[in-house]
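Section 3.1: Structural characterization of target chains.
Under the original work plan, the team committed to producing a structural model for every single-chain target entering the pipeline before any wet-lab resources were allocated. The record below documents one such target. The sequence was received from the expression subgroup and is listed exactly as submitted; it comprises 430 residues.
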Amino acid sequence: MKERIAILGGVRTPIGKAGGVLSDLTAVELGTHVVKETLARTAIKKSDVDELIMGNVAQPVEAANVSRVIALRAGLDDHLPAFTVQRNCASGMQAITSAAERILAGGATICIAGGVEAMSQIPLLYNEDMTAFFYQLSNKRLSSWQRLNVLMKFRPRYLKPTIGVVKGLTDPVCGLNMGQTAEVLAREFKISRSEQDHFALASHRKAIAAERAGHFATEIHPIFTKDKQNTLIKKDEGPRSNQSLTSLAALKPYFDRRTGTVTVGNACSINDGAAAVVLMREKEAKRRKLPCLGYLTAYSYAALPAHRMGLGPIYATHRLLKETKLLLKNFDLIEINEAFAAQVLANIKAFTSKKFSETYLNTSKALGSIDESKLNVSGGAIALGHPVGMSGTRLVIHILNELQRRKKRRGLATLCVGGGQGAALYLESS
């Protein structure tokens, strides 16, 4: 990037589990909530915003181009353009980097960017047999006897639905779901079940500690549910204070039931949530004398074979380090999205492997070791959850808040992307 982009501030909703506390809220409602609050906290006038960009994976059928609907529901100007981006798990980062590109290209001065996902509301779909049955039945040229003949062909198995979220989390090229790709890495890097469970337990413990210390309070904007109780949700639903190795060890492998090691306990959950930030050029923020949460300094995306998609962070970080001339040790904090414990542990091992760098990154040196005291200091998606379109923005907001709180300078936020990609953002505190 030719200059830094100022991130004035940002907020997120609490993260709810699928079918949990936020399950009655739509993607539009979640997104509108954070956009309104982000504007309020940064004291930016609605009329000053030039564009809104949101990341979203499971586009809601009732809100095509969910970003535009969010913009209007949030009270932004009718003439303000908005568009939605989709890069699977990196959608919340893609929204931010797309906004940065619009600003640097001169197409906008102030943008709101973020991500939203209401995974509880991903629909069940009719299967092919049921769809064909309905098409035949809807043919207006059928006589009464022909229509009766179609009805007689109905079979109960037609009612078996296609589960949208399962379909969406399965790669159409390699044929593996995301959990199965984690099993690929667990075998390749010889990551044991015990290692994964210990990592998962640490994620919960760090998240609980951060919550109790109030470290999430600055980034979370509470939200009311729509049920009869109209409950105010103030904290993430996922972290468990009573999580233990015993309970984790009791879970059976979920994605490879015979020989696998990945369970629902050492993997992220399916979740609901939204997050948003306000961005402008650094010099524009200084001209307006606006306080900043931090800066986006550089970013990279990379691709790799889909069946090893969990290694996206090392591929993207490799490109980022080449561009910035930094070393891994130069970062004060690192956030790697915890899609699966096996996936994060595989990246940690790959970063230190000269052989991996020679074989896959075309470089003669290992990228370096990750100081685990700097990694996911407040836990990650295994405890907090992973609303896929929102997570990239959450990582940015959280690492910038942590850099400020710890009086540190440089942060690396990175994640793997379903389909075989990776994203890495270099962020600096203000």
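The chain has a mean pLDDT of 96.
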